[in-house]
Amino acid sequence: MMNAQPDGLTKWHRFVSEKDMQALAEALADDVLLRSPVLWKPKQGKATAILHISSVARVLEDFTYQRQFVGDNAVVLEFSARVGSLSVKGVDIFQFNAAGRPTDYKRSERRWRNNWHPQIVQKSEANCGAWQFHRFSLPVHTSRTGFVASF
Asked: Which residues of the chain have pLDDT under 50?
């Protein structure tokens, strides 16, 4: 069980609250693995993760963490947000290395009828560029639980 909050998590919270890109860069391990079923396959590396995470940060509005669950070198953060008039709920799942930096990051969100909701696609295209959004995205395939990991 982790006794103190990892340095990477402290910097992650600074990124979320202040949109501080330097904090995001300092938070992530160089070899961080970003997991999302809307990506063709998991993406490895800090630069790629920063691209995707910062794009999502521009799309989600009123982003707030409600609860935190701590385990062995891992943290799950439950969040809520909005995209236009849509409510978004989900979790961020982190696995930390010995230096306190996330080496594995996964976002899971409640699904919208087995695919991206049109408001999310429209806002993502506007904030990230349509080419960039569609280049890295695939239709969402949901599990029986009704949750999907997405970016």
From this structure: 1, 113-117, 129-151
Residue environment code for 102-138, b if the CB has 16+ CB neighbours within 10 A, otherwise e: bbbbbbbbbbbeeebeeebbbbbeebbeeeebeebbe
Q: Are 37 and 150 in contact (CB under 8 A)?
A: yes
Q: Give tens-digit pLDDT for 84-102.
A: 888 888 899 999 999 999 9
> How many residues are given for the chain?
151
Print burial letters for 43-76: b (CB count within 10 Å at least 16), e (below 16).
beebeebbbbbbbbbebbeebeeeeeeeeeebbe
Residue linked to tokens 């063709």: 40
- Kindly report the number of other CB atoms within 10 A of residue 18's CB atom: 10
Full set of structural domains in the chain with CATH: 7-149 (3.10.450.50)
For residue 138, the one-letter residue type is L
